[in-house]
Specification:
Layout (H helix, E strand, L loop, with lengths): L1 H13 L4 H4 L7 H9 L3 H5 L34 E6 L3 H19 L6 E6 L5 H11 L4 E9 L5 H20 L3 E8 L2 H6 L7 H19 L2 E4 L2 E4 L4
Helix pairs in contact: 5-9, 6-7
Length: about 240
Amino acid sequence: EKMLTKIAFGVALLGLVAPGDAFAPSSLLPGRLSAHSAALTHGARSALPTGLSLRPTTLAAPQMATKGIDFPALDGKETRVGIVYTRWNAEVVNKLRDGSKKGLSDLCGVKADNIVEFEVPGAWELPVAARYMALTQKVDAVIAIGVLVKGETDHYDMIKDAACSALMTLQLETGIPVLNGILGCHDMAQAEARATGDNNHGVWWGQTAVEMALLRATQMGKVTVDGEAKKKVMF
């Protein structure tokens, strides 16, 4: 009602209807509005403020933001990455896993022999399996992949929050980048949408793993020259 009152008041100010009629609902019908507009004299139209027109205005279509991450050129030929993935919701998890391997190998040049994979039952087991990998110091980054779909109980929230928090703690404690590839979705359709085609999040995880591994190597003063690891003086 407040919105209709504001519209009606504005219409009355423009002289499209009489002030008394402006607040009558029937005066806002398209037919009444058109009739009043047509009845405006040339003088009334010319009295409109500069820049204000009675002609309909066509609004530009809103620009939709594109999803995804832009990456620089990444050379992962000497990078070793671990992938830990779940059997739970395997159909979607395998798509994300394949996407990660595409991001690693096809886009960053990581050798197939330098991709180490562990399989675990579910998302609850991901942090400890990722920890086993990280503690060996034989991988430069770890990608943990799982899919959780909200059900009727709070179990989904318990697993999701605890597992994600543990992965963050793991990378901070070990210094090994750990990618959180756990999807928390409200239904399986959401999970499928994030594991399919150009929107496969696994591809981004693979690229991110290499970028973070290279960042860690440079900050630790490690470089590779002709396949041989050498110490680099940073400062």
